[in-house]
Design a protein that fits this description.
By secondary structure, this protein is of the alpha+beta class. Helices cover about 40% and strands about 30% of the residues. Strands 2-3-1-4 form a 4-stranded antiparallel β-sheet. The N and C termini lie close together (about 10 Å).
Length: about 110
């Protein structure tokens, strides 16, 4: 089992649209492609607002294959296209990290 941390810069001006798209569309389509989302958060610093979430994967190959299938999903491609027309860019910088447990890490 591996874990993936995704952090998206989101914008206050269209934050509600981002959350609606992720909640109502991305999560449903991700589930269809075998994603296992463990938890989601919104974070803020003095300079930006972020959306962070953790995914669980059986292995790196599965992670890569399922991300590729999700990104190519025709429904997701169309939802992104339409939301960009309606709301502009919903996501700025994206950070993607593979979380490797230490040998002394308690199990989740």
């Amino acid at each position: 089992m591996i874990h993936q941390l995704r952090i998206y810069e989101i914008f206050e001006s269209n934050k509600a649209a981002f959350h609606a798209r992720f909640r109502d569309h991305a999560m449903r389509i991700m589930a269809r492609h075998g994603f296992r989302i463990l938890s989601l958060w919104e974070t803020r610093s003095a300079t930006r607002t972020e959306f962070a979430y953790i995914l669980a994967w059986p292995d790196a190959q599965t992670k890569a294959e399922r991300w590729a299938s999700f990104k190519a999903d025709p429904e997701w491609v169309e939802i992104k296209r339409v939301s960009a027309i309606e709301h502009g860019d919903l996501v700025g910088a994206i950070e993607d990290r593979l979380l490797m447990p230490t040998d002394y890490s308690p199990q989740l």
